[in-house]
Amino acid sequence: MNTLPSYTLASRPQSGRFLRAWAVLSRGTFSGAIFLLDVALIVATSCATGIAYGVAAYGDPGEMSSFARIGVLAASIFTISNVFRGEYRLPNFFAFRPHARRTVQLWNVTLIGLLMLAFLTRQNLEYSRAWILLFYAVALAALIVERFLIVRITAHARSAGLVSAQRIFLIGTGAHVGAFLNYYQPWTLGINVTGCRFLTPVAANAPETQRNAALDRDLAAAIASVRSVEPDAIYLLLPWSAADTIARCAEAFLALPVEIHLGPEQILHKFEDAELSKLGPLASLKLTRLPLSRFEVVQKRLFDLVFAALALIALTPLLFIVAILIRLDSAGPVFFVQRRYGFNQQPFRIIKFRTMTTLDDGAVVPQAVRNDPRLTRIGGWLRRWNIDEIPQLFNVLTGDMSLVGPRPHALAHEREYEQRISLYARRHNVKPGITGWAQINGFRGPTDTDEKMRKRVEYDLFYIDNWSLWLDLKIIARTVLSPTAYRNAY
Fold first, then answer.
1. pTM to 2 decimal places
2. Tell me, what's the pLDDT at 405?
3. Displacement of CA 68 from its chain's centroid (Å)
4. CB-based contact 304:315 (threshold 8 Å)
5. Closest Cα to residue 146, out of 38, 283, 17, 270?
6. Structural domain boundaries in the chain
7. Shortest CA distance to 45 belongs to which of 178, 139, 162?
8. Burial 321-330 (b: 16+ CB within 10 A, else e)
9. Which among 375, 371, 328, 384 is positioned nearest to 354, based on CA atoms?
10. CATH class of 165-286
Protein backbone atom coordinates (compact mmCIF):
# COMPACT_ATOMS: atom_id res chain seq x y z
CA MET A 1 0.00 0.00 0.00
CA ASN A 2 1.15 3.51 -0.78
CA THR A 3 0.29 5.26 2.47
CA LEU A 4 0.71 8.99 2.76
CA PRO A 5 1.24 9.79 6.46
CA SER A 6 1.40 13.53 5.76
CA TYR A 7 -2.20 13.45 4.58
CA THR A 8 -3.43 11.41 7.56
CA LEU A 9 -4.64 14.21 9.81
CA ALA A 10 -6.66 12.23 12.33
CA SER A 11 -7.60 8.71 13.29
CA ARG A 12 -4.29 7.36 12.08
CA PRO A 13 -3.89 3.59 11.89
CA GLN A 14 -1.45 3.68 14.77
CA SER A 15 -3.95 5.60 16.93
CA GLY A 16 -5.96 2.44 17.55
CA ARG A 17 -9.63 1.61 17.45
CA PHE A 18 -10.53 3.82 20.42
CA LEU A 19 -9.67 7.08 18.65
CA ARG A 20 -11.35 5.95 15.44
CA ALA A 21 -14.48 5.02 17.37
CA TRP A 22 -14.37 8.40 19.12
CA ALA A 23 -14.17 10.19 15.76
CA VAL A 24 -17.27 8.36 14.55
CA LEU A 25 -19.10 9.07 17.82
CA SER A 26 -18.20 12.78 17.66
CA ARG A 27 -19.71 13.07 14.21
CA GLY A 28 -22.88 11.38 15.37
CA THR A 29 -23.36 13.58 18.44
CA PHE A 30 -22.10 16.89 17.08
CA SER A 31 -25.29 17.95 15.28
CA GLY A 32 -27.47 17.07 18.26
CA ALA A 33 -25.25 18.97 20.67
CA ILE A 34 -25.26 22.17 18.60
CA PHE A 35 -29.02 21.85 18.07
CA LEU A 36 -29.63 21.70 21.84
CA LEU A 37 -27.13 24.50 22.46
CA ASP A 38 -29.00 26.77 20.03
CA VAL A 39 -32.32 26.02 21.73
CA ALA A 40 -30.91 26.71 25.20
CA LEU A 41 -29.18 29.91 24.07
CA ILE A 42 -32.26 31.39 22.36
CA VAL A 43 -34.63 30.53 25.23
CA ALA A 44 -32.17 31.88 27.81
CA THR A 45 -31.68 35.09 25.81
CA SER A 46 -35.43 35.56 25.50
CA CYS A 47 -35.95 35.23 29.25
CA ALA A 48 -32.93 37.36 30.17
CA THR A 49 -33.78 40.24 27.82
CA GLY A 50 -37.45 40.09 28.80
CA ILE A 51 -36.69 40.34 32.51
CA ALA A 52 -34.03 43.02 32.00
CA TYR A 53 -36.34 45.12 29.82
CA GLY A 54 -39.25 44.74 32.26
CA VAL A 55 -37.16 45.88 35.20
CA ALA A 56 -35.64 48.82 33.27
CA ALA A 57 -38.88 50.02 31.68
CA TYR A 58 -41.54 49.18 34.26
CA GLY A 59 -39.72 48.16 37.43
CA ASP A 60 -41.34 44.74 37.14
CA PRO A 61 -39.60 41.67 35.66
CA GLY A 62 -42.90 40.33 34.31
CA GLU A 63 -43.76 36.69 33.81
CA MET A 64 -40.80 34.58 32.79
CA SER A 65 -43.11 31.94 31.32
CA SER A 66 -44.36 34.35 28.65
CA PHE A 67 -40.81 35.17 27.58
CA ALA A 68 -39.90 31.49 27.66
CA ARG A 69 -42.80 30.71 25.28
CA ILE A 70 -41.47 33.24 22.77
CA GLY A 71 -37.98 31.81 23.19
CA VAL A 72 -39.17 28.27 22.54
CA LEU A 73 -41.10 29.39 19.47
CA ALA A 74 -38.12 31.34 18.11
CA ALA A 75 -35.79 28.43 18.84
CA SER A 76 -38.15 26.06 17.02
CA ILE A 77 -38.27 28.21 13.88
CA PHE A 78 -34.51 28.79 13.89
CA THR A 79 -33.36 25.24 14.59
CA ILE A 80 -35.85 23.57 12.25
CA SER A 81 -34.75 25.92 9.47
CA ASN A 82 -31.14 24.97 10.23
CA VAL A 83 -32.00 21.27 10.12
CA PHE A 84 -33.71 21.51 6.75
CA ARG A 85 -30.76 23.45 5.31
CA GLY A 86 -28.21 21.02 6.75
CA GLU A 87 -26.52 23.75 8.79
CA TYR A 88 -25.71 21.44 11.72
CA ARG A 89 -23.45 19.21 9.67
CA LEU A 90 -19.91 19.10 10.99
CA PRO A 91 -18.15 20.45 7.83
CA ASN A 92 -20.07 23.73 8.16
CA PHE A 93 -18.20 24.47 11.38
CA PHE A 94 -14.71 24.46 9.89
CA ALA A 95 -15.09 28.06 8.58
CA PHE A 96 -16.66 30.99 10.43
CA ARG A 97 -17.58 33.65 7.87
CA PRO A 98 -19.89 31.67 5.55
CA HIS A 99 -21.58 30.00 8.51
CA ALA A 100 -22.04 33.35 10.28
CA ARG A 101 -23.62 34.82 7.14
CA ARG A 102 -26.13 31.97 6.94
CA THR A 103 -26.87 32.34 10.66
CA VAL A 104 -27.78 36.01 10.16
CA GLN A 105 -30.07 35.08 7.27
CA LEU A 106 -31.88 32.38 9.23
CA TRP A 107 -32.27 34.58 12.31
CA ASN A 108 -33.88 37.24 10.11
CA VAL A 109 -36.24 34.55 8.81
CA THR A 110 -36.99 33.65 12.44
CA LEU A 111 -37.90 37.25 13.29
CA ILE A 112 -40.21 37.48 10.28
CA GLY A 113 -41.83 34.19 11.26
CA LEU A 114 -42.38 35.40 14.83
CA LEU A 115 -43.97 38.65 13.66
CA MET A 116 -46.28 36.81 11.25
CA LEU A 117 -47.38 34.35 13.93
CA ALA A 118 -47.94 37.18 16.42
CA PHE A 119 -50.10 39.03 13.89
CA LEU A 120 -52.15 35.97 12.96
CA THR A 121 -52.75 34.98 16.59
CA ARG A 122 -53.25 38.60 17.73
CA GLN A 123 -50.46 38.29 20.27
CA ASN A 124 -48.52 41.28 18.92
CA LEU A 125 -50.03 43.64 21.49
CA GLU A 126 -48.89 41.59 24.48
CA TYR A 127 -45.19 42.19 23.92
CA SER A 128 -43.30 45.44 23.69
CA ARG A 129 -41.82 46.20 20.28
CA ALA A 130 -38.74 47.57 22.02
CA TRP A 131 -38.25 44.24 23.77
CA ILE A 132 -38.69 42.33 20.51
CA LEU A 133 -35.93 44.43 18.92
CA LEU A 134 -33.74 43.95 21.99
CA PHE A 135 -34.30 40.19 21.91
CA TYR A 136 -33.52 40.09 18.18
CA ALA A 137 -30.25 42.03 18.54
CA VAL A 138 -28.95 40.28 21.67
CA ALA A 139 -29.85 36.79 20.44
CA LEU A 140 -28.23 37.45 17.07
CA ALA A 141 -25.04 38.65 18.75
CA ALA A 142 -25.09 35.62 21.07
CA LEU A 143 -25.56 33.21 18.15
CA ILE A 144 -22.67 34.79 16.23
CA VAL A 145 -20.38 34.55 19.25
CA GLU A 146 -21.51 30.97 19.83
CA ARG A 147 -20.73 30.07 16.20
CA PHE A 148 -17.30 31.69 16.45
CA LEU A 149 -16.43 29.73 19.57
CA ILE A 150 -17.71 26.46 18.10
CA VAL A 151 -15.63 26.97 14.97
CA ARG A 152 -12.51 27.63 17.07
CA ILE A 153 -13.14 24.59 19.28
CA THR A 154 -13.85 22.43 16.23
CA ALA A 155 -10.62 23.56 14.59
CA HIS A 156 -8.57 22.61 17.66
CA ALA A 157 -10.38 19.29 17.97
CA ARG A 158 -9.75 18.56 14.32
CA SER A 159 -6.05 19.31 14.70
CA ALA A 160 -5.90 16.94 17.67
CA GLY A 161 -7.61 14.20 15.68
CA LEU A 162 -10.69 14.18 17.91
CA VAL A 163 -13.12 15.39 15.26
CA SER A 164 -13.35 14.53 11.58
CA ALA A 165 -16.10 15.05 9.06
CA GLN A 166 -15.14 11.85 7.25
CA ARG A 167 -12.23 9.42 7.03
CA ILE A 168 -11.46 8.51 3.43
CA PHE A 169 -9.19 6.23 1.43
CA LEU A 170 -7.98 7.27 -2.03
CA ILE A 171 -7.34 5.02 -5.00
CA GLY A 172 -6.53 6.16 -8.52
CA THR A 173 -3.84 7.37 -10.87
CA GLY A 174 -1.00 9.40 -9.44
CA ALA A 175 -2.00 12.46 -11.47
CA HIS A 176 -5.63 12.39 -10.34
CA VAL A 177 -4.77 11.76 -6.68
CA GLY A 178 -2.25 14.59 -6.67
CA ALA A 179 -4.68 16.96 -8.37
CA PHE A 180 -7.41 16.05 -5.87
CA LEU A 181 -5.16 16.70 -2.86
CA ASN A 182 -3.70 19.93 -4.23
CA TYR A 183 -7.00 21.43 -5.30
CA TYR A 184 -9.34 20.43 -2.48
CA GLN A 185 -6.85 20.09 0.41
CA PRO A 186 -9.30 17.79 2.21
CA TRP A 187 -7.65 18.26 5.61
CA THR A 188 -8.89 21.87 5.60
CA LEU A 189 -12.45 20.52 5.24
CA GLY A 190 -12.16 18.23 8.23
CA ILE A 191 -11.67 15.20 5.98
CA ASN A 192 -8.96 12.80 7.10
CA VAL A 193 -7.15 10.85 4.40
CA THR A 194 -6.24 7.57 6.09
CA GLY A 195 -4.46 6.01 3.15
CA CYS A 196 -3.91 5.90 -0.58
CA ARG A 197 -3.24 3.38 -3.33
CA PHE A 198 -1.84 4.40 -6.69
CA LEU A 199 -2.88 2.21 -9.61
CA THR A 200 0.10 0.71 -11.39
CA PRO A 201 0.75 2.50 -14.70
CA VAL A 202 0.34 0.19 -17.69
CA ALA A 203 1.12 1.09 -21.28
CA ALA A 204 -1.95 1.81 -23.38
CA ASN A 205 -0.89 -0.76 -25.97
CA ALA A 206 -0.29 -3.48 -23.36
CA PRO A 207 -2.38 -6.66 -23.72
CA GLU A 208 -5.71 -6.64 -21.90
CA THR A 209 -4.64 -9.60 -19.76
CA GLN A 210 -1.64 -7.61 -18.51
CA ARG A 211 -3.79 -4.58 -17.67
CA ASN A 212 -6.35 -6.72 -15.86
CA ALA A 213 -3.67 -8.53 -13.88
CA ALA A 214 -2.11 -5.25 -12.71
CA LEU A 215 -5.52 -3.90 -11.70
CA ASP A 216 -6.35 -7.09 -9.80
CA ARG A 217 -3.10 -6.83 -7.82
CA ASP A 218 -3.77 -3.18 -7.00
CA LEU A 219 -7.34 -3.88 -5.91
CA ALA A 220 -6.30 -6.80 -3.72
CA ALA A 221 -3.71 -4.63 -1.96
CA ALA A 222 -6.19 -1.75 -1.63
CA ILE A 223 -8.87 -4.00 -0.12
CA ALA A 224 -6.41 -5.28 2.46
CA SER A 225 -5.41 -1.71 3.33
CA VAL A 226 -9.01 -0.54 3.62
CA ARG A 227 -9.84 -3.41 5.99
CA SER A 228 -6.88 -2.32 8.11
CA VAL A 229 -7.51 1.43 8.37
CA GLU A 230 -11.34 1.22 8.36
CA PRO A 231 -12.21 4.45 6.51
CA ASP A 232 -15.75 5.75 6.11
CA ALA A 233 -15.49 6.10 2.34
CA ILE A 234 -13.37 5.20 -0.66
CA TYR A 235 -12.79 7.80 -3.38
CA LEU A 236 -12.11 6.49 -6.89
CA LEU A 237 -9.91 9.15 -8.50
CA LEU A 238 -9.91 8.15 -12.13
CA PRO A 239 -10.80 9.82 -15.43
CA TRP A 240 -14.51 9.33 -15.99
CA SER A 241 -13.76 7.99 -19.46
CA ALA A 242 -12.17 4.89 -17.82
CA ALA A 243 -15.61 3.33 -17.39
CA ASP A 244 -14.42 -0.30 -17.31
CA THR A 245 -11.77 0.39 -14.66
CA ILE A 246 -14.26 2.35 -12.52
CA ALA A 247 -16.81 -0.47 -12.76
CA ARG A 248 -14.26 -3.11 -11.72
CA CYS A 249 -13.05 -0.98 -8.78
CA ALA A 250 -16.60 -0.34 -7.58
CA GLU A 251 -17.50 -4.01 -7.87
CA ALA A 252 -14.41 -5.03 -5.87
CA PHE A 253 -15.11 -2.52 -3.07
CA LEU A 254 -18.76 -3.56 -2.72
CA ALA A 255 -17.49 -6.32 -0.44
CA LEU A 256 -16.37 -3.67 2.09
CA PRO A 257 -18.61 -1.84 4.60
CA VAL A 258 -17.74 1.63 3.23
CA GLU A 259 -19.22 4.31 1.02
CA ILE A 260 -17.90 4.34 -2.54
CA HIS A 261 -17.49 7.75 -4.20
CA LEU A 262 -16.52 8.56 -7.76
CA GLY A 263 -14.11 11.44 -7.34
CA PRO A 264 -14.57 14.72 -9.21
CA GLU A 265 -13.33 15.13 -12.75
CA GLN A 266 -11.19 18.22 -13.28
CA ILE A 267 -13.93 19.97 -15.23
CA LEU A 268 -15.85 20.28 -11.94
CA HIS A 269 -13.19 22.65 -10.62
CA LYS A 270 -14.88 25.29 -12.79
CA PHE A 271 -18.32 24.63 -11.30
CA GLU A 272 -18.35 25.06 -7.53
CA ASP A 273 -22.11 24.46 -7.26
CA ALA A 274 -22.16 21.18 -9.17
CA GLU A 275 -24.38 18.56 -7.54
CA LEU A 276 -26.16 15.31 -8.32
CA SER A 277 -29.74 15.91 -9.38
CA LYS A 278 -32.51 13.32 -9.55
CA LEU A 279 -35.86 13.58 -11.30
CA GLY A 280 -37.49 10.26 -10.54
CA PRO A 281 -35.16 7.58 -11.91
CA LEU A 282 -33.23 10.11 -14.01
CA ALA A 283 -29.92 11.04 -12.37
CA SER A 284 -27.73 13.81 -13.76
CA LEU A 285 -24.82 15.97 -12.68
CA LYS A 286 -26.09 19.55 -12.41
CA LEU A 287 -23.14 21.80 -13.18
CA THR A 288 -24.84 25.14 -12.49
CA ARG A 289 -28.01 26.31 -10.77
CA LEU A 290 -30.41 29.02 -11.82
CA PRO A 291 -28.81 32.43 -11.20
CA LEU A 292 -31.72 33.22 -8.87
CA SER A 293 -34.36 30.80 -7.64
CA ARG A 294 -37.99 31.56 -8.44
CA PHE A 295 -38.53 32.74 -4.88
CA GLU A 296 -35.46 35.00 -5.11
CA VAL A 297 -36.72 36.44 -8.41
CA VAL A 298 -40.04 37.33 -6.75
CA GLN A 299 -38.21 38.85 -3.76
CA LYS A 300 -35.98 40.97 -5.98
CA ARG A 301 -38.87 42.10 -8.18
CA LEU A 302 -41.00 43.19 -5.21
CA PHE A 303 -38.00 45.01 -3.75
CA ASP A 304 -37.45 46.80 -7.08
CA LEU A 305 -41.08 47.82 -7.48
CA VAL A 306 -41.43 49.21 -3.96
CA PHE A 307 -38.14 51.10 -3.85
CA ALA A 308 -38.35 52.38 -7.43
CA ALA A 309 -41.89 53.70 -6.88
CA LEU A 310 -40.93 55.40 -3.62
CA ALA A 311 -37.77 56.86 -5.17
CA LEU A 312 -39.69 58.29 -8.13
CA ILE A 313 -42.26 59.90 -5.82
CA ALA A 314 -39.52 61.43 -3.68
CA LEU A 315 -37.42 62.58 -6.66
CA THR A 316 -40.20 64.00 -8.85
CA PRO A 317 -39.32 67.65 -8.03
CA LEU A 318 -35.69 66.97 -8.93
CA LEU A 319 -36.73 65.37 -12.23
CA PHE A 320 -38.64 68.49 -13.26
CA ILE A 321 -35.79 70.80 -12.23
CA VAL A 322 -33.17 68.80 -14.16
CA ALA A 323 -35.43 68.59 -17.22
CA ILE A 324 -35.82 72.37 -17.26
CA LEU A 325 -32.06 72.90 -16.84
CA ILE A 326 -31.27 70.54 -19.73
CA ARG A 327 -33.68 72.36 -22.07
CA LEU A 328 -32.20 75.73 -21.08
CA ASP A 329 -28.62 74.49 -21.41
CA SER A 330 -28.59 73.10 -24.96
CA ALA A 331 -30.78 72.19 -27.90
CA GLY A 332 -32.10 68.65 -28.01
CA PRO A 333 -34.33 66.25 -26.09
CA VAL A 334 -34.38 66.02 -22.31
CA PHE A 335 -33.92 62.26 -22.32
CA PHE A 336 -31.31 60.11 -24.03
CA VAL A 337 -32.60 56.70 -25.17
CA GLN A 338 -30.18 53.98 -26.22
CA ARG A 339 -30.45 50.27 -26.98
CA ARG A 340 -28.94 47.94 -24.39
CA TYR A 341 -29.03 44.22 -23.65
CA GLY A 342 -31.19 43.13 -20.73
CA PHE A 343 -31.97 39.78 -19.14
CA ASN A 344 -31.06 36.84 -21.40
CA GLN A 345 -29.63 39.33 -23.95
CA GLN A 346 -33.05 40.70 -24.82
CA PRO A 347 -32.64 44.27 -26.14
CA PHE A 348 -34.45 47.18 -24.50
CA ARG A 349 -34.18 50.96 -24.56
CA ILE A 350 -32.55 52.53 -21.54
CA ILE A 351 -33.64 56.02 -20.44
CA LYS A 352 -31.17 58.61 -19.14
CA PHE A 353 -31.03 62.37 -18.88
CA ARG A 354 -29.22 63.73 -21.92
CA THR A 355 -25.73 64.86 -20.96
CA MET A 356 -24.09 65.16 -24.40
CA THR A 357 -24.63 67.03 -27.63
CA THR A 358 -24.70 63.70 -29.52
CA LEU A 359 -27.11 60.76 -29.32
CA ASP A 360 -24.89 57.85 -30.43
CA ASP A 361 -26.67 54.50 -30.81
CA GLY A 362 -25.12 52.88 -33.87
CA ALA A 363 -22.43 50.35 -34.71
CA VAL A 364 -19.79 52.66 -33.20
CA VAL A 365 -20.40 54.31 -29.82
CA PRO A 366 -17.37 56.23 -28.45
CA GLN A 367 -17.05 55.94 -24.68
CA ALA A 368 -17.13 59.06 -22.54
CA VAL A 369 -13.71 60.22 -21.34
CA ARG A 370 -12.47 62.91 -18.98
CA ASN A 371 -13.18 66.42 -20.34
CA ASP A 372 -15.14 64.89 -23.22
CA PRO A 373 -15.96 67.70 -25.71
CA ARG A 374 -19.41 66.18 -26.32
CA LEU A 375 -20.51 66.92 -22.74
CA THR A 376 -22.96 69.75 -22.23
CA ARG A 377 -22.33 72.30 -19.49
CA ILE A 378 -24.78 70.64 -17.13
CA GLY A 379 -24.00 67.15 -18.42
CA GLY A 380 -20.71 66.84 -16.55
CA TRP A 381 -22.38 67.79 -13.30
CA LEU A 382 -25.24 65.31 -13.85
CA ARG A 383 -22.75 62.52 -14.52
CA ARG A 384 -20.54 63.49 -11.59
CA TRP A 385 -23.39 62.91 -9.13
CA ASN A 386 -25.12 60.05 -10.99
CA ILE A 387 -28.23 62.19 -11.48
CA ASP A 388 -28.39 61.28 -15.19
CA GLU A 389 -29.23 57.68 -14.12
CA ILE A 390 -32.43 58.59 -12.21
CA PRO A 391 -34.82 58.15 -15.19
CA GLN A 392 -33.82 54.47 -15.28
CA LEU A 393 -36.25 54.05 -12.40
CA PHE A 394 -38.88 53.93 -15.16
CA ASN A 395 -36.96 51.00 -16.70
CA VAL A 396 -37.11 49.30 -13.32
CA LEU A 397 -40.88 49.75 -13.07
CA THR A 398 -41.40 48.34 -16.57
CA GLY A 399 -39.30 45.29 -15.70
CA ASP A 400 -36.41 45.90 -18.13
CA MET A 401 -33.97 46.66 -15.33
CA SER A 402 -33.40 46.14 -11.63
CA LEU A 403 -32.20 48.63 -9.05
CA VAL A 404 -29.03 46.59 -8.61
CA GLY A 405 -27.29 44.40 -11.15
CA PRO A 406 -24.54 44.41 -13.78
CA ARG A 407 -24.53 47.75 -15.60
CA PRO A 408 -25.72 47.41 -19.23
CA HIS A 409 -23.45 48.62 -22.02
CA ALA A 410 -24.19 49.91 -25.49
CA LEU A 411 -24.83 47.09 -27.99
CA ALA A 412 -21.68 47.98 -29.92
CA HIS A 413 -19.58 47.43 -26.78
CA GLU A 414 -21.48 44.27 -25.83
CA ARG A 415 -20.68 42.55 -29.13
CA GLU A 416 -17.04 43.57 -28.89
CA TYR A 417 -16.42 42.35 -25.35
CA GLU A 418 -18.31 39.08 -25.78
CA GLN A 419 -15.55 38.05 -28.19
CA ARG A 420 -12.71 39.19 -25.94
CA ILE A 421 -13.74 38.53 -22.32
CA SER A 422 -14.41 35.02 -21.03
CA LEU A 423 -17.87 34.55 -19.46
CA TYR A 424 -18.81 38.14 -20.36
CA ALA A 425 -22.25 37.10 -21.63
CA ARG A 426 -23.04 35.51 -18.25
CA ARG A 427 -23.68 39.04 -16.96
CA HIS A 428 -27.04 38.82 -18.73
CA ASN A 429 -28.24 35.94 -16.55
CA VAL A 430 -29.88 38.56 -14.32
CA LYS A 431 -31.50 41.89 -15.12
CA PRO A 432 -29.09 44.82 -15.55
CA GLY A 433 -29.06 47.38 -12.78
CA ILE A 434 -28.91 51.12 -12.25
CA THR A 435 -25.96 50.46 -9.97
CA GLY A 436 -23.91 47.38 -9.25
CA TRP A 437 -21.22 45.69 -7.20
CA ALA A 438 -18.53 46.63 -9.74
CA GLN A 439 -19.50 50.31 -9.72
CA ILE A 440 -19.33 50.77 -5.95
CA ASN A 441 -15.91 49.10 -5.95
CA GLY A 442 -14.52 51.69 -8.36
CA PHE A 443 -14.92 49.81 -11.68
CA ARG A 444 -17.02 52.29 -13.61
CA GLY A 445 -16.26 54.75 -16.36
CA PRO A 446 -14.43 53.94 -19.60
CA THR A 447 -13.16 50.42 -20.19
CA ASP A 448 -10.32 51.27 -22.55
CA THR A 449 -8.38 48.09 -21.67
CA ASP A 450 -9.40 44.44 -21.49
CA GLU A 451 -8.13 44.27 -17.90
CA LYS A 452 -10.57 46.97 -16.74
CA MET A 453 -13.47 45.09 -18.32
CA ARG A 454 -12.28 41.77 -16.85
CA LYS A 455 -12.32 43.28 -13.37
CA ARG A 456 -15.80 44.68 -13.95
CA VAL A 457 -17.02 41.29 -15.16
CA GLU A 458 -15.38 39.58 -12.18
CA TYR A 459 -17.30 41.79 -9.75
CA ASP A 460 -20.54 41.38 -11.71
CA LEU A 461 -20.27 37.59 -11.60
CA PHE A 462 -19.54 37.71 -7.87
CA TYR A 463 -22.78 39.65 -7.42
CA ILE A 464 -24.76 37.07 -9.41
CA ASP A 465 -23.31 34.16 -7.43
CA ASN A 466 -23.80 35.81 -4.03
CA TRP A 467 -27.05 37.73 -4.43
CA SER A 468 -29.19 38.60 -1.42
CA LEU A 469 -31.55 41.43 -0.51
CA TRP A 470 -29.02 42.51 2.10
CA LEU A 471 -26.36 42.80 -0.62
CA ASP A 472 -28.73 44.93 -2.74
CA LEU A 473 -29.37 47.26 0.21
CA LYS A 474 -25.64 47.50 0.87
CA ILE A 475 -24.91 48.39 -2.77
CA ILE A 476 -27.65 51.04 -2.86
CA ALA A 477 -26.37 52.62 0.36
CA ARG A 478 -22.78 52.68 -0.90
CA THR A 479 -23.90 54.06 -4.26
CA VAL A 480 -25.24 57.10 -2.46
CA LEU A 481 -22.72 57.46 0.37
CA SER A 482 -19.38 55.99 -0.73
CA PRO A 483 -16.87 58.22 -2.58
CA THR A 484 -15.69 55.12 -4.48
CA ALA A 485 -19.02 54.93 -6.29
CA TYR A 486 -18.37 58.35 -7.83
CA ARG A 487 -14.89 57.52 -9.08
CA ASN A 488 -14.38 57.89 -12.85
CA ALA A 489 -17.83 59.52 -13.16
CA TYR A 490 -17.42 61.53 -16.34
1. 0.63
2. 95
3. 34
4. no
5. 38
6. 16-159, 165-286, 294-486
7. 139
8. ebeebbeeee
9. 375
10. alpha beta
